[in-house]
Design goal:
By secondary structure, the protein is mainly alpha-helical. It folds into 3 domains: about 30 residues, no CATH class; about 260 residues, no CATH class; about 100 residues, no CATH class. It has 21 helices and 4 strands. A hairpin with a 2-residue loop joins β3 and β4. α5 packs antiparallel against α14 and α9 packs parallel to α14. About 30% of the residues are buried. The C terminus is likely disordered.
Length: about 450
């Protein structure tokens, strides 16, 4: 008996502190400990992802409570999540085992508790992986459509194929290169820090106006369709506000990854515990700053034009009418006014530009993209239009409409603006920066507004 004890003591003496702690728990270490404490923190911080969570579920918080629910709900719920994280940190410091949650439940509540905890946790993780991969595939599909005009976005067969590719690539990284995964997570941390900081600074310095403290911290909204839009009473408190709480609860989740990776982390009893609560705390602080930047960027009033009629409404009402999305707030904050008929005007201007080029509005602006029936984007830079070279009096002036083309000879087109202004209105956003670099006089329209 003494020999067995002596051999066991010698075996423990040859282990490092992490491996010895697992041996004391009856658990044999099988994974390689290559992750630092920062890598452990990085994986939980990246999974929480305030950029992804705050952007995608902001509308849920806005429609389910409005600015006040977001401004107050995020820090209050974040504090509650932090308390849960501190409890998990205490557990992982005592049981720094791979698998984390189900192993703790098994030791503390018995095998049955561990069984149910493990399966529920696994089902949740499978759902999260599938949703994130599908979101990535959808984003990739939209990006292809943005950069390639010949590609049609929204094809479900294509999206599902991209979804499978994302899953395969993520699986290969996790299976064959834990070190690469650690590097990706570390880069993701700084991507989130600098990305969120850039968004916040843009929303601080670019908008012409900002919402008041009263609007941000007291204005409530019920855009869920329940209770007739009322923002008070039993139903609002116990149904609408919990819906809005999903903004916080959906975003600040997945921090248990630090516990799952504890067997691959050096000094796991300390590093994994700190990875959990620090990822929650820093995400809660950074997310609140980001959300407040969104809320303060809502404009006091917005002028919208519908079918030629201008109406003015509060910025909060405009965001609500737009579905509560972050894109509506950016549209308010980064433009002087929101024109709901702008897509129609843009299409009209593009058609006008096309026919003007076809009819030699300018002697150099005659090249069309072969087989596509529309002006080539480089043509907009090559035209060499001079400021103020309008339709009237131009030596190469011709009416925009042929006799067989509807709208020929309409006064508004005959008296059209300067060719420079016409070009500004028809140019696509992706080519405007280059156009302005080559033709600085095209940077603003005749009334002083940017094109």
């Amino acid at each position: 008996m003494s020999d067995v004890i002596r051999d066991r003591s010698a075996e423990l003496a040859g282990m490092d502190a992490d491996e010895r702690r697992l041996a004391e728990l009856g658990y044999k270490q099988e994974l390689n400990r290559s992750w630092s404490g920062f890598h452990n923190f990085a994986i939980s911080f990246s999974i929480i992802s305030i950029l992804a969570g705050c952007f995608t579920t902001f509308g849920t918080g806005w429609n389910g409570g409005g600015p006040a629910a977001i401004a107050w709900g995020w820090p209050i719920l974040g504090l509650g999540v932090l308390m849960i994280g501190l409890c998990l940190s205490e557990l992982v410091s005592a049981y720094p085992t791979s698998g984390g949650i189900y192993w703790w439940a098994s030791k503390l509540g018995g095998p049955k508790a561990g069984y149910y905890t493990g399966w529920l946790n696994l089902i949740g993780l499978l759902a999260i992986v599938a949703s994130v991969a599908y979101g990535c595939a959808t984003f990739f599909d939209l990006m292809l459509g943005f950069f390639d005009s010949g590609y049609t976005s929204g094809n479900l067969n294509h999206i599902f194929l991209y979804f499978l590719v994302v899953l395969v690539l993520a699986s290969l990284v996790n299976i064959f290169s834990s070190h690469l995964l650690a590097i990706i997570n570390s880069v993701s941390v700084w991507w989130h820090v600098f990305g969120a900081a850039a968004v916040v600074l843009i929303l601080i310095f670019l908008p012409h106006h900002h919402a008041s403290l009263s609007t941000v911290f007291t204005k409530t909204v019920n855009n869920t369709g329940f209770f007739g839009g009322r923002t008070g009473g039993f139903g609002y408190i116990f149904l609408i506000l919990p819906i809005g709480a999903l903004l916080t609860l959906y975003t600040i989740t997945g921090y248990d990854a630090s516990a799952h990776l504890s067997e691959e982390t050096k000094s796991a009893a300390n590093s994994a515990a700190r990875g959990i609560w620090q990822s929650i705390l820093y995400s809660a602080i950074g997310g609140w700053i980001l959300l407040l930047a969104f809320l303060f960027a809502v404009q006091p009033s917005v002028t919208s034009t519908v079918n030629g009629k201008s109406t003015t409404m509060s910025g909060v009402d405009a965001v609500t009418n737009g579905g509560g999305g972050v894109s509506v707030i950016f549209s308010q904050a980064l433009t002087k006014q929101v024109g709901w008929d702008r897509p129609a005007h843009l299409h009209r201007r593009a058609v006008l530009l096309h026919h003007g080029l076809h009819d030699q509005l300018h002697p150099d602006a005659v090249r069309l993209q072969p087989g596509r029936g529309r002006p080539r984007p480089p043509l907009l830079v090559e035209a060499q239009l001079q400021p103020g070279a309008g339709l009237r009096g131009h030596p190469h002036r011709r009416h925009l409409g042929h006799p067989d083309r509807p709208g020929a000879g309409e006064g508004q087109y005959q008296r059209g603006p300067g060719a420079g202004r016409l070009l500004r209105r028809g140019v696509h956003r992706r080519h405007r920066a280059l156009l302005v670099l080559l033709h600085p006089h095209l940077a603003a329209s005749e009334d002083g507004r940017p094109f």
